[in-house]
Amino acid sequence: MSSPADLPRELSVGELSRRSGVPVSALHFYEAEGLIRSWRSGGNQRRFPRGMLRRVAIIKVAQRAGVSLKEIKNALARLPQDRAPTPEDWANMSAAWRDALDERIRTLVAIRDQLTSCIGCGCLSLSVCPLRNPADRLGQEGSGARLIEAL
């Protein structure tokens, strides 16, 4: 087994891709968006500090939870660039995203619960929506799903 001192301090884009499971094209995109950083070797090859592995892991977990790249970038921008994010950094980031995720979950549950009876604007559920939309008052406000947005 290798000790931390035996591990390379820098990774090529291919190594970062293999170790993170993220395609090279996505790593290039993350770099262009300022989520990760690299430098160029003497042979003009991208090199990433090993700490970028943890940043990429954070990006992927946060994306899977529905956090936007803009929110992820803002959170990562508050961290020092010269070290990998720590467990404490992750705890702070995930806590900051928790309220927004809880709200998104509440909205999705409400939409799911209404899905079979109404799409939100009443046009496909006339037997139900006259109670929720008397005299088509929502139609007077414009087209589109109005009730879903009000959840």
Brief sketch in words of this structure:
This protein has helices at residues 13-20, 24-32, 52-64, 69-77, 87-114, 129-132, 137-140; strands at residues 10-11, 39-40, 46-49. It is mainly alpha-helical. The protein is elongated and about 70 Å long.
Describe the structure.
The protein has 151 residues and is mostly helical. It has a domain at 4-97: Multidrug-efflux Transporter Regulator, Chain: A, Domain 2. The protein is built from seven helices and three strands, in the order βααββααααα. It has helices at residues 13-20, 24-32, 52-64, 69-77, 87-114, 129-132, 137-140, and strands at residues 10-11, 39-40, 46-49. It has a three-stranded antiparallel sheet. A hairpin with a 5-residue loop joins strand 2 (39-40) and strand 3. The termini are far apart.
